[in-house]
């Protein structure tokens, strides 16, 4: 007789431990988007801008997977990746969250071109139109929705409000500094 594998779900302690990491991803996404909304000047600025775009995309993709990804079936959930759905009973988050905006789906579905590989053609950063500002604007509502809908007791106190504040400050054009967002 085969035993059914027990479904893995993160414990309350594991969900709370994710608090600072989740806040960091949100903070960095909106901070970098705000930095990228400023015009550039010299060639050195272009190199810095490319580095900021790459950093933005790492944080952005992580958040998109968190908010729009669905935990895999219990038997497939070995990596212990975190999902917004982990913080809600049953399928409540799937009912709360908006559809994945096309602009975000395009960015998330794009190949990872930073890896050195023979199978993917590399695209020069100068040849790509980066939509980081509109992408950040498209992400902000789901961050705010999550912060409003989630049970704050699952997080270290104050961080959910901080997550929401990062998104709201970006949307309102209050760019602030990284220190302001951490306060």
What does this molecule look like?
It is a single chain. With 183 residues, the protein is mainly alpha-helical. The protein has one domain (12-114, 121-182). It is built from 8 helices and no strands. The protein has helices spanning 12-17, 19-36, 43-68, 92-96, 102-109, 132-149, 159-172, 178-182. The chain is globular, with a radius of gyration of 18 Å. The chain starts with 11 loop residues before the first helix and ends with a helix. The model has no long low-confidence stretch (mean pLDDT 82).
Q: Indicate the mean pLDDT.
A: 82
What characterizes the major β-sheet? none
Chain oligomer state: single chain
**What count of structural domains?**
1
Radius of gyration computed on alpha carbons: 18 Å
Which segments are poorly predicted (pLDDT under 50) over 5 or more consecutive residues? none
- Helix content range of the residues, please? 40-55%
Annotation keywords:
mainly alpha, 8 helices, globular
Provide a concise account of the structure shown.
The protein has one domain.
